[in-house]
TrEMBL record:
Residues 246-311 form the HTH luxR-type domain. InterPro entries: Sig_transdc_resp-reg_C-effctor (IPR016032), TrmB-like (IPR051797), Tscrpt_reg_LuxR_C (IPR000792), WH-like_DNA-bd_sf (IPR036388). One of its GO terms (molecular function) is DNA binding. This is Regulatory protein, luxR family. It comes from Asanoa ishikariensis. One of its GO terms (biological process) is regulation of DNA-templated transcription. SMART domains: HTH_LUXR.
Length: 314
């Protein structure tokens, strides 16, 4: 909201009741003085002796919040316009180009177990936005919490979100609860749904890996057909909206998430928020991901608009 020098000067103006421009002529040319005046945190009073005085904090901050909200809304509207233009261009591209040389390039059957496992990992590591997963109660071996690994740093840095839905029966298997807790600790967002017909791994909007059998290791289908991938993503989002968040999930705002949300609204970066709260950037990104899911949005601008609309930014 204010630079550090401007904030210090504002506090000094409040503490002193104002500073004489005659006794402090250097104030006129200071960048922090101009910043306070431009942002309506201070004003020059020319009744008798010229004085730089602070605007009442409640009025100054109220005005700054309104200005910030208008900026956010303007940015959001600009992004919506950009998205509409992108959709039009995508439709034009799809109508004038061939997405694959042969239809078989869009669907591939895999029967080798090692290749299935390696492909699942490879797809996840190549994600740019989302890794979506469905996990049923059918395993080739009992779940092992030790197999859960921390999310790769480069994926976290890209802001990739990892979401997993477990079937209710999967939670009754020995070791499943420990694996779920380990997944949450590693950065996954997890929910539980009563029953699902199959496992699935879906990456961004470009590829999905579906099982040919109950465990997924009997054989799998790699699908890269955009229409089918979009339908599978819609299926996942429908399940996600109806699934129940597990402990540690973003069902409600925790005090930490509330703190992160307030700082996000100020325009601070993840690194700045981490320094401010004394936590790691990875923790901040995990909280931001949970907030995006909680408010049903996909970016910070939309998050700010939704938070202000719902009164969560107070």
């Amino acid at each position: 909201m204010l630079s550090e020098p401007a904030a210090l000067l504002y506090e000094k103006l409040i503490a002193t009741g104002g500073l004489s421009l005659t006794d402090n002529p250097e104030l006129t040319g200071l960048p922090e003085s101009r910043e306070l005046i431009d942002k309506a945190f201070a004003r020059e009073r020319h009744v008798g002796v010229a004085v730089l005085v602070a605007v009442e904090p409640i009025r100054a901050i109220d005005n700054a919040i309104l200005v910030r909200q208008r900026q956010i809304l303007d940015q959001y509207q600009g992004l919506l316009k950009l998205r509409d233009e992108m959709t039009s261009l995508q439709q034009l591209y799809a109508s004038t180009s061939r997405l694959a040389e042969e239809p078989t390039d869009l669907v591939r059957v895999i029967t080798d177990r090692q290749e299935i496992g390696a492909l699942s990992v490879e797809l996840s590591l190549s994600a740019q936005q989302d890794v979506l997963s469905l996990e049923t109660e059918h395993f080739t071996r009992a779940p092992d919490p030790r197999s859960v690994r921390a999310l790769p740093a480069d994926l976290v840095a890209r802001g990739v979100r990892f979401r997993n839905i477990y079937s209710r029966a999967a939670m009754e298997i020995d070791g499943a609860r420990q694996m779920l807790n380990a997944s949450i600790a590693a950065g996954w967002l997890c929910r539980v749904y009563p029953s699902m017909p199959m496992k699935m791994v879906l990456v961004d909007e470009r590829a999905a890996l579906l099982p040919l059998g109950r465990t997924g290791m009997e054989g799998a289908i790699l699908i890269q057909a955009p229409v089918v991938v979009a339908a599978l993503r819609g299926y996942f989002e429908l399940l996600w909206s109806r699934a129940v968040p597990v402990e540690g999930g973003p069902a409600d705002l925790s005090s930490e998430q509330g703190s992160v949300l307030r700082l996000v609204l100020t325009g601070m970066t993840d690194a700045a928020i981490a320094r401010h709260l004394g936590v790691s950037e990875r923790t901040v990104r995990r909280h931001v991901g949970a907030l995006l899911t909680r408010f049903g949005v996909t970016n910070r601008v939309a998050l700010a608009v939704a938070a202000v609309r719902e009164g969560a930014a107070d």
